[in-house]
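PROTEIN ENTRY
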Amino acid sequence: MFHRNEIKYEKYVMYHFKKKSLKWCRKTLTKQQEKEIQDFYLKHLGRKVDTAYHRYFYSRNGFFSPRYIPTYVYQSQIIGRLNDMRMKSSYADKNQYERLFPQVKQPKTILKCVNGFYHQDDRPISKEEAILLCGNLQEAIIKPSLETSRGDHVACISTKDGKLKNGKSVEALFNVYGKNFIVQERIKQHAKMSALNPTSVNTIRILTYRRGNDIEILYGVIRIGRKGKVVDNESSGGITTQINKDSSLPKYAYGAPSEKPFETTDSGVVLDGYQIPSYEKVEELVKELHLQLPFFKLAGWDIAIGEDDDPIFIEWNPRADLSQTTVGPAFGDFTEEILEIARTQPNTRLYEIGETKFVDIEKNEVASFLR
């Protein structure tokens, strides 16, 4: 039984999707395809779905499948049932990554601001000391430390004598970013990754699924920034393409719905057959890291490749966007299994969309058990 707030949220997501993206669709679904979709979802989720997303992905990549996951279903019904969203703020805080994943290489941290308190090397410092610490930087990265999406507010900054290039003060910059942010040295990425677009750190995004103590790789993609851009997110203008099992790239990458598929990057690199360095290392790394997240069965991982070929952990996401235009159905052979979880488990995300009460075990059941 689906909650009223789930349905309300679904309508909100669908309204914006149809307004912004569906207009670019050039293909329609046949009656037989529509029937396949509805039969599939009635069987595995217990309800029909809006087929607009199936039409959208089919229009973009030419591949039809009833297994596509509509984004509104993923966001409202799947994420909160596979992941305990009550725990996301603690586990997804970038200022806690060094404690959470101490064994993995990460960008060097210059400054942390946690709930308004400043730290250097985990040593509390004053705001005045923090301003001095960041007063003379050469191409550092500042970003919010709590969960964001689309690379929002990630910026490359250089400072001299306490001021940015635009003349504004470091103190004013801190005030804009508020109580939770992190400042790090910019990564020096592998030459083959930099060649894709030298102004952005071009990251590998992997989606993993936990089944007991086994971690499955659902897919891997490479996210490539556009000319002059700092971030590589598709929703911020970047392009995305799948990484094949042999670490090579296919012929096409995808950007905004209004754009045709790309065969080359803005820097002129031909995608078809291009080899991504250290991809096997990245897959093994994210499998290891996911086992340290017991509250989350689905996780999206952003990993860079350093100059020395080693993976560099950037961040993980408890509700990563699905790259279905690029890879096809996101959950592949595990789609039916994941939908069964979405059909039967309580939704921890209800507190985010208007329902604050969520109880795993009733109080009287505990009392009865311990009596």
Observations:
- The radius of gyration is 22 Å.
- The first helix runs from residue 4 to 20.
